[in-house]
Each structure stands twice: as C-alpha cells, then as structure tokens.
Design brief:
The chain is an alpha/beta fold. It has 14 helices and 13 strands. It is 46% helix and 17% strand. The strands form five sheets. A five-stranded parallel beta sheet has the order 3-6-9-1-10.
Length: 320
Amino acid sequence: MQHRTDVEAADALRGTYKHILSEIGKVIIGQDEVVKSVLISIFSNGHCLLVGVPGLAKTLLVQTVAQVLDLDFSRIQFTPDLMPSDIIGSEILGEDRNFKFIPGPVFSNIILADEINRTPPKTQAALLEAMQEKAVTVAGATHKLAQPFFVLATQNPIEQEGTYPLPEAQLDRFMFNVSLDYPTLQQELLIVKNTTSSVVPDVKKVLNAEQIIYFQQLVRNIPVTDHVLEYAVKLVSKTRPGSDLASAEVKRLLNWGAGPRASQFLILGAKCHAVISGKYSPDIEDVQAVAKPVLRHRIIRSYHAEAEGLSADDIITRLL
C-alpha cells in the first residue's frame, strides 16, 4: 500500500474514493452528500450521526459502507431495556471457576448504533469511552478495540416520546451530524424500480482495514496554511455568544457555541474534502463545505432563534 510520495498517495485516495462511491451507488440511490460525509468522517477517523425520518435507507447505507470496506460490522438496535453489558460485553464464570471476558458487539470495526436515542443515558454512555478512548473497561480491566473503529449512529427526529436525547458531551463526540432528506421524484422512481425486483446488486470490496489506517494517516499529514487554520478557528469562535468575535446577531440567536473539538474536526474534514476534490491542501471553501455537519449539533439556539423559526443550518449559513 506504500506510495513513494504523499502526492501519489493523495491521488490513490481520490481514485479509491471514486471507486467506493460507484460501488455504494449500486445500492444507495441519491443521498450523494450523505455518502460523501460518511466517507469523509471515516477517512478522518471520526464518528458520524445520521438524522432522518424512517425509510430513508440510513441502516442500508451503513451496511453497504461496511460491505464495500472489508471490515467487521456489528449492528446494535438500541431499545429502552438495553444494558451497557449488552454493548461492551461482560464477565462470566468459566468451567475452570475463573471469570473470563466475553466481548460484546462493540468489538468490531464499524458499529451501527441504530436509533441511539431510544436507550437510557446509562447505556448511551457505554459507547462514550469506546468512541473517545477506542477501548472499554470492564471489571477494572481495559480492553483495546480493533482499529479502525467507527460509530455510525442513526436517529429519528420525529418521535420524541420514549426517547432520550443525546447529552451535549456525547453529541460532541460525533465528528459529523448528517441530516437526510427525502429523495427527489426521479430518485424515488429509481429506488422503487430497483428494490421491487429480484435482482440483487453485487457490491465488491474496495478497501481493507490496513489501507484505511494508511489513508487516515495521510489525511493527517496534509499541510494546511495558517490563514485557513485561522479561518476555521475564527468561524468556531464566532458561534460563541461570549466571544469578542461574536456578532450582536449571534449573541441574540445562540445560547451556546461550539467547542475546540469543532475547530479540530473542521480542519480534518477540510483536509479530506480537499484530497477527494483533487487538491493537495485545503482552502477556505473546503472548510465551508464541512461547516454545517460539524457545527449543527454543537450550537444551541436561543428562544429568539426558535421563535423566528431559524434552524441551526440557517444560523451557520449566516455565519458563512
């Protein structure tokens, strides 16, 4: 997998990205921006939260991504009675009268956390350590998770009854919050045509774990100019009502702004976006391209913004 120069490696990543897109396109119709965001978060070593109404192929998308990337895949269906041990595993008494650890579904490369807001905070928190430390602690012993490791979580924004909204600290662990929309009429016609026949698309594997880790390292090695770095940090700072850079409008529309993790993810996302767009270093446009999925779950709107019917995306558009 070694390339002689980073330029060669960047070209290889762009070619691989296009190949992955064409394979995923055999199953997922439309949702181009969503697929792009999921792949950017994977190559940037971040986690992704997919928010959309039922039936938009969120689960199918994650399963297809796991299929194209030759990785271990676990699906966890979050329910109100799910316990932390159902996710991370538990210790059981063996025949030799000693306790042994039985790993849970979190010991995979890609975790699909389906309807993550359906389970109580105690179980949601079981994923927190795994997402941040890439390890889990059971009975005082720390167990490392396989690399690469991604959590792709789904959430239904309509139903609030019987759900437990993710706390801010946990939302902050997700690099991207990607919102899915309904397909266009043409796309829906194609979806119905493809999914109501007996033809099963043949999806080929494109990348393995070792190659993904190599490309993740490459993304980190991409140089960034100081003015792009400054633009990203200032953009995040402008979302904080208490900051000197915040406008009067932001102070009125937002209660809380994004933290330093947003700046880190803006730069990482911009680096990856630059490479897949054919550039060898990110510019301001690349930062703007990833700004909405990075910021939309990190800013808290004020009463004024809600009264005026302004969404988080509307406020980010004004900032850009």
